[in-house]
Amino acid sequence: GQSLEQPSEVTAVEGAIVQINCTYQTSGFYGLSWYQQHDGGAPTFLSYNALDGLEETGRFSSFLSRSDSYGYLLLQELQMKDSASYFCAVRAGNTPLVFGKGTRLSVIA
Amino acid sequence: EAGVVQSPRYKIIEKKQPVAFWCNPISGHNTLYWYLQNLGQGPELLIRYENEEAVDDSQLPKDRFSAERLKGVDSTLKIQPAELGDSAVYLCASSNHGIKETQYFGPGTRLLVL
Q1: Strand order of the sheet with strand A18-25?
Q2: pLDDT tens readout for residues B57-89
Q3: Which of B111, B104, B100, B50 is nearest to B77 (CA)?
Q4: CB–CB of B41 and A43 under 8 A?
Q5: Which residues from A are below 8 Å from B105, CB to CB?
Q6: What does the pLDDT look like over A66-99, one tens digit per residue?
Q7: What is the largest CA-CA distance in chain B?
Q8: In terms of Cα–Cα distance, which of A72, A73, A94 is closest to A27?
Q9: What is the per-residue DSSP string for A65-106?
């Protein structure tokens, strides 16, 4: 089977940088995705890493280390609207995405 | 381009009653997913369709849950009879053909079983 671990809650100050970690255990690993979900809203795709390294998209970056079975989402210049839940999801083998339990990010003034 | 549409957005029913959820995926997306999301948890796959064929339904409780995707477009998820533990958000997502890391989710149906 597959398992993912990420912190349940993170709090950060507006304008700061926050990193949300995700470790996974799986066989046949293809890649790691990140999704954002505001309260009452739909999960929305943020990024996907299939290769080691850092992928940058505006204020958001995502990192993957396949050898460490580890990835993270980096949010810079935090804004209040970034308060949401962030899910890592692993794609492996011939199975659909398996989502982690999510990290609830609270951005405070 | 219109996103994934789901209805109803909210549903309150008494236990043992039937309930149905409807999903219209993004036009041209062959793959459709139904997920269940409990409070404070990530989405959990119930069933995946490739066109009109259910190709992954191992997590669907088949004694009470059923789904269909007639003509490979819209889909309906049904629960009969509903139980208290079925209270959750039911999310529909779609993607281009095959297993994709990029899925587009609808707003979900929030079900409360009393």
Answers
A1: A3-5, A18-25, A70-75, A60-65, A53-57
A2: 888 999 999 999 988 899 999 999 999 999 999
A3: B111
A4: no
A5: 42-44
A6: 999 999 999 999 999 999 999 999 988 877 889 9
A7: 38
A8: A94
A9: ETTTTEEEEEE-S--GGG-EEEEEEEEETTEEEEE---EEEE
